[in-house]
Amino acid sequence: MSDLFEITYIDPADTSFTRSAGGMLRMETDRELFPEITVRRTYPMTKPYEYLSVWTKDDKEIGIIRSIEEFDEESREELVTELKLRYIIPAVTRIDSIKEEPGLWTFQVKTDRGDLKLLMRNIHEHIQMIGVNRLIITDMEGKRCEIKDIESLDAASRKHLSKVI
Question: Which parts of the sequence belong to the DUF1854 domain (predicted)?
Fold first, then answer.
């Protein structure tokens, strides 16, 4: 019986990532061309550019990239671009208000992508601390935003946030 959990690592020595004429990310090795692939983070918060899972358009895993730093410059740039497209998380620049109504919390925030309104029932299930000063906030509909550094927020935003964390 073969090991069902065997990990295939992608060898940076014989692999490159480029874009097709149509803009699709593709992977080429010494042995094979994958004309349309997707890249998924296995540790999105703690290791965003390490242990990336590469998949075919038919949803079959090709293998794992240990670190994008092992690849040539063009491949690294294409991988970073693909990950930014796939994992868009607006960064909070200001908190306008945090209100509690019976059974519902409402956050009104400004982000680098515009205004955002987040609704949550149990606030502590929707706020994830990443390290000391970083937060990921996910509302009931799955909308997410990130506070990259609480200390970089203005005083009014920090005051709003201090009431709930």
Answer: 37-163
Which tens digits make up the pLDDT trace of 78-96? Answer: 999 999 888 888 999 999 9
Of 59, 58, 53, 125, the C-alpha closest to 82 is: 53
Residues 6+ apart with CB under 8 A from 131: none
- Distance of alpha carbon 107 from alpha carbon 151, whole angstroms: 18
> With bands split at pLDDT 50, 70 and 90, how would you rate the model's confidence at 4?
low
- What letter represents residue 143's amino acid? K
Q: Output the CA torsion 100→105→107→108 (10° steps).
A: -70
The confidence score (pLDDT) of residue 1 equals 43
pLDDT average, residue stretch 22-47: 92
Residue whose pair of structure tokens reads 């940076």 in the numeric block: 12
Beta bridge partner(s), residue 29: 15
| Residue that is written with structure tokens 């042995």 in the block | 31
Nearest CA-CA partner of 134 in 153, 148, 116: 148
